[in-house]
Amino acid sequence: MTDPDTDDADKTQPTAPRPEDARPAPAPPAQASAAEGPPAPAQAAPAAAPPEPEPVCPHCRKPLSLCVCEGVEPIENRVALLILQHPQEQDKLLGTARLAARHFTNAVFKVGLSWPSLEKALGRPADPRRWAILHLGSVDPATLPRGRDIAVVDSKGIPAPDQDTALKGIDGIVVFDGTWSQAKTLWWRNPWVLKGKRLVLAPTKPSLYGRLRREPRREGLSTLEAAALVLSRLEKQPEIETRLLDSFGRMLDRYRDSGLGAAPAKPDRRGRRPFRRRKS
Ligand SMILES: [Zn+2]
């Protein structure tokens, strides 16, 4: 596992070790579920404040100009999706976790750092041994089975000899939403994930983020792309991936059209710039 001193502000669903993210850490909010939390606060503008923020979609929590929720028709998925978002993951503009969850009837989105069990995180009974998590440790790409873009590996990153059998009987997947270091934190704060199977992704195409977010590794996918890839393979329904990527593409188009990306990066509430370049 590498531990370089690079500084990424991007957020991906890593499939292999990613550089440390050194974002400043605000106090984490209490955990909340997507279903109940209040919509993002529309802040009253104090005198001489910047222009009022654009209204936010209650579902994806994005400014309405970036929201693509209207075109989303939830898919009835058999393999459940549980997305656990690190409280410091604050990318309201380009984050994809809520949008990903919105695509499925059988999906749960939570914000928090730790849950005592899968059951508590999910809000219903579940056997963690029948769930899978994206492996965060290192994997030698040369050992991955050919012709597959997802594979089950053991705790040392060694692929299971019989992938078809290993991929069977998975009831759901846990996806951590956050930077590489945030995902690692979530991993260690939720030891019940160790009971599950571990999946490695070897996508054949790079993330649609393209240059909007610098990807240190080609297989660094957004949370939405990772969920789309895994669920479409586990359910053997390519359409799942097509539909999610279509929504993601529309969101990115809106982002590019909105000019939000072109505007000079303005500090967010914590004074952090949304996009930072690598320190050199
Ligand atoms: Zn929306």
UniProtKB/TrEMBL annotation:
<dbReference type="InterPro" id="IPR039262">
    <property type="entry name" value="DTWD2/TAPT"/>
</dbReference>
<comment type="similarity">
    <text>Belongs to the TDD superfamily. DTWD2 family.</text>
</comment>
<feature type="compositionally biased region" description="Low complexity">
    <location>
        <begin position="30"/>
        <end position="47"/>
    </location>
</feature>
<keyword id="KW-0808">Transferase</keyword>
<protein>
    <recommendedName>
        <fullName>tRNA-uridine aminocarboxypropyltransferase</fullName>
        <ecNumber>2.5.1.25</ecNumber>
    </recommendedName>
</protein>
<keyword id="KW-0819">tRNA processing</keyword>
<feature type="region of interest" description="Disordered">
    <location>
        <begin position="1"/>
        <end position="56"/>
    </location>
</feature>
<feature type="domain" description="DTW">
    <location>
        <begin position="53"/>
        <end position="260"/>
    </location>
</feature>
<feature type="compositionally biased region" description="Basic residues">
    <location>
        <begin position="269"/>
        <end position="280"/>
    </location>
</feature>
<dbReference type="Pfam" id="PF03942">
    <property type="entry name" value="DTW"/>
</dbReference>
<keyword id="KW-0949">S-adenosyl-L-methionine</keyword>
<dbReference type="InterPro" id="IPR005636">
    <property type="entry name" value="DTW"/>
</dbReference>
<feature type="region of interest" description="Disordered">
    <location>
        <begin position="258"/>
        <end position="280"/>
    </location>
</feature>
